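[agent] plan:
  1. take the single chain provided in the ticket
  2. run structure prediction with default settings
  3. attach structure tokens to the ticket
  4. add a short note for the reviewer (M.T.)
[agent] executing step 1
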Amino acid sequence: MFNLTTIVGFVAAFCTTISFVPQALQTIKTKNTKGISLLMYSLFTFGTLLWLLFGVMLANYPMIIANGITNVLAIIILVYKIKYK
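[agent] step 2 finished; step 3 output follows
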């Protein structure tokens, strides 16, 4: 059903996305973004959006799923960074 490349992609996507979730949840819970650089987070969010678009262009589902989830969380944190400055 899945080839080895796709399996590796899904495992990598899972690891990188799940590692991001605790930071996002902590930021959402506390609204504390003091330690986050606005410039760095803006670039990170834009970068994950580009990776998502790249995944769509390649029809690469691990890339689409991982960067879609990460981008949503990154946008939430970026909004908190701007809103609770």
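[agent] step 4 note for reviewer: Residues 4-83 form a domain with the Monooxygenase fold (CATH 1.20.1280.290).
[agent] ticket updated
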